[in-house]
Amino acid sequence: MLIAKIGGGENINLPGIVADLADLRESYIVVHGANALRDNLAQALAKPKKVLTSVSGYSSVYSDQDAVDLLMMAYSGLRNKRLVELFQQHGANAVGLSGLDGRVVQGRRNKGIRVRENGKLKIVRDLSGKPQEVNRSLLGLLLENGYVPVLTIPIVDENGFAINSENDDIVTALQKNMNAQTVIQLIEAPGFLDDPDDPGSLIPQMTVAGLKQREEQVTGRIKRKLLALTRLFDNGVEAVVIADGRTEHPIKDALSGGGTLIK
Predict the structure, then answer these.
(1) Angstrom distance (rounded) from CA 23 to CA 210
(2) Those residues with Cβ within 8 angstroms of residue 238's Cβ, 6 or more apart along the chain or in another chain
(3) Contact 156, 106 (CB under 8 A)
């Protein structure tokens, strides 16, 4: 089984990705973002996002009720249904779901994020959390009957509330519960870059040890993403490919040696 994580950047080639996936013979699950769409919608509604950075160096989007409403519109609304539409046009019978639907992904709400503000330490609580369980029976039912699950946030917390979560953590939970051997992450870059500002600094291959070393050296959202990648290997994934989601055939390129292979 394969998990395809589609980034939410403006320049991701969604039609090309869907066309490639529809040609695959193995089963797969799609997890997608919509951050650019969410940011544009937030600007139009005059509700800009707020990013929190914990004292340990990890960054996340502050998720109040307005933020959850926005991600429902952008992620599980417009982006999810347009992707399902593309799959249907390519003969793949996709089913669009948020983690809230059927409790496909259930999490536990965060107790709070420790941040430093104006030199003072404080705890910030919001509507966010981490995945804990996956509804394997529902996903298995869909896959066994030829459907393509297309998943996104929000997920559901222990009390039935919709909460924000990181798609990287959702992919980790799915991989562990569905025994996926390959994860493809499609981004707006040629792959993992040694220098984020230099597209020519692509690292074609990386070891898990090298991945952990880089996670210790960085801060912000990339630190969280690298941590999620290392957890995939802790769970037994065989290979992760970080590849360019902007090419004509993003999935085919990733499976034929494009991007960065972590193994």
Answers:
(1) 33
(2) 181, 182, 263
(3) yes
Residues facing 94 on adjacent strands: 148
Q: Which domains are assigned to the chain?
A: 2-34+64-108+131-262 (3.40.1160.10)
CA 211 to chain centre: 18
What pLDDT was estimated at residue 219?
64
The list of the chain residues with pLDDT below 70 reads 219-221
The pTM assigned to this predicted structure is 0.92
Give pLDDT, residue 112.
83
Partner residues linked to 54 by β-bridges: 115
With beta carbons less than 8 A apart as the criterion, state whether 171 and 228 touch: yes
Mean pLDDT of the chain: 93
Q: What's the Cα-to-Cα distance from 202 to each of 161, 191, 215, 246, 255, rounded to whole Å?
A: 41, 6, 17, 15, 17
Place of tokens 């040890």: 209
What pLDDT does 210 receive? 86
